[in-house]
């Protein structure tokens, strides 16, 4: 492993831990040349799932895109980094469990919204407003209606 600071390929592993529910290994390393420490994360290359986008183009499923979308929706909300990471792991596992080698971007968005609604209602509305392309106030009202108390 090359040191990210000095690019020398000589390090030693200080600590190894399982992470992401055993699907990854996190290693703490020390560069023998500059003595700086850095972390690496190793995970199996599980994703051969392709996402079919609205324009019918296809790309390899990238859980990092889900993470960034959830983080944007949860901006300034009481949602921890661990909660976001757990959501991403759950969604990634659900997608990888599909027997089909392809999934539509709409299905990915539905998986995210389904789980995000249980974590934070405001983050859910934020994500849904972008994902479902809200253009009118009525779109927001329709999305918020299930979370309002029953009218008398």
Gross geometry: elongated
Average predicted confidence as pLDDT: 88
Ends distance: 65 Å
Helicity, as a percent range: 40-55%
Rg value: 20 Å
Query: Which runs of at least 5 residues are low in confidence (pLDDT < 50)?
Result: none
Largest sheet: 3 strands, antiparallel
Looking at this protein, list some descriptive labels.
40% helix; three-stranded mixed beta sheet; alpha+beta; 6 strands; elongated; three-stranded antiparallel beta sheet; 152 residues
Overview of this protein structure:
The structure is a single chain. Strand 1 and strand 2 form a beta hairpin. The protein is an alpha+beta fold and 152 residues long. The termini are far apart. Helix content is 40%, strand content 22%.
Q: Topology, please?
A:
Layout: E1 11-19, E2 24-31, E3 37-43, E4 50-52, E5 58-60, H1 63-73, H2 81-96, E6 102-104, H3 105-119, H4 121-131, H5 137-144
Parallel strand pairs: 4-6
Antiparallel strand pairs: 1-2, 2-3, 4-5
Summarize it.
By secondary structure, this protein is α+β, with helices and mostly antiparallel strands. It contains 5 helices and 6 strands. It has a 3-stranded antiparallel β-sheet, with no helix packed on it. A 3-stranded mixed β-sheet has the order 5-4-6.
